[in-house]
Amino acid sequence: MIKWILRFFVVFIFLVLIVFIRHFYLPACHTPQYPTYDGWDNGTVNHILPSASHNEFLIKTSFEKALEEAPTLLISDSIIVKGHSSESSKRFWSFHATGLKPDTEYELKLENEERNSLADAWPLSTYPHPDSSAEKLTILAYTCAGGVEDKVLGREIFIKTVYRQQLLSRGLTFDPDIVIANGDHIYWDRKSLDNTFTKRLLKLRLDNIYGHLDLEEAMTSEANLEVLTNIVDAQIAELYGCLLRSKPVYFLTDDHDLFENDEAREDIVTFPPQSYMLDGALSTQSMYYPEFLPDRNRPQGLTGQDGLFNRSYGTIRYGNLLEGLLYDGKRYSTLSDTSAVMVARDAEAWIANRTVADDTKHLLHIPSSPIAWTAGKWSEWYPDVLQEDGSIGTYPNKKHLWQKGWWLQHQRLLSYLKESNRTPVVLQGDLHNLSYALIEESGDVTFENDPIHVVGTGPLGSGEFGFPSSFRGTGAVVPEDMKVEKLLDQTEKNGFSIIEVTSDRIDISMYAWRPEDGEEVIVDLEPLFRYAIRN
Q1: What pTM was computed for the model?
Q2: Gyration radius of the chain over CA positions
């Protein structure tokens, strides 16, 4: 009997080893799947992500194969813009058009050097002039759209790409004028995944599917370029394809877009970012999604400036109706105690100046680092951290290497909003939830007469294990030093927000879904929450 038990045990261990080796060690492959379009032929184009202002377009594209000669963008049969490629594969091309007319719809065509069309034509519009009247603006906003389809130990970290596309398509039925994707477009953490067995398995599994990045080499080097594009194609090009070809997009970066999670442990501190992290973010943005176009009220030479564009700090200016200030809270963070910042000092000065200006009817702050909520992560404005009893707070455990200066900058930013003559509204990303809160107090700063509206726009791609309550053991809570009225408590579902801006109000509608709700309900998804902000 014992002999048979031993034989069974040996066979069982052998089978487990075979499964383990096949799943985690033997090379696998990913078969790209791009969206399809009713009545529109994308030809040889894999993806199109455009941005716009009142007089410029910046468009990022990729193609099925390399184009030896630069393609051209023909704008309404009168303006020709030659493509620019920043990497050796010649599969990725960008187009920058200037001198356009405000508030005008143009027809765009991609053509090769022989003037043959590379895809069907499509429309794209400029914005109203900053000094002109605009009656209405509709925004589709969300966060955390990245991640590849895979499971580790049976747990799904990100939902299927097709679900994300269906949620995007539902959002597009509201005919938004612009799209805001607030951070975490890429999940491909490198060194910060080495602290647990499960994370190492995830890293090993994905490296065997998409390839391994050599962090000692440049991201677009011969050794890394194919792997990098495998990784990012799966998370950006395959997700969006050409779905947003007529919708100007704003891609704000956060920690994972720099190829690490924000972590501070005895063995690793990920921010300020190391050179491979900066290279990864720069290379991804250069190839896949637009930088921020110039704005007359954003200083040239501001931190994040790269040639004509800014990579980290951007502006949405839509006539005299709305100004949105987009700011990255990770890339330029510092570790210097009370003088530490998460937003570069000169960028903070720009934010302060524009917040107290009064030349638009509405103002949005759009930070990558969330305000009014904490999940106990390291690089937050707040010192709160997960305690042994499962609560989040500041006692007795302290957050390792947390910087007091982050909180002080947070207080300054909220004070600028308090000084604004416009209703203070924050659209934020990073936290994997939908939420709506009114900040009444933050430390010794009070907002009782004019609370700050804080909108958690909703995560597009989070799977079962990607939500904080699973990944961190706790959902998001209000920090100890803040008093907040929760109109919608943090809701861990996939989703997005529709923001409709008119002269006298901002209407917020939030849409939520989980795979267990059923794929068939997405097409007619109804709002989870609605709120009207009146000026």
Answers
A1: 0.94
A2: 23
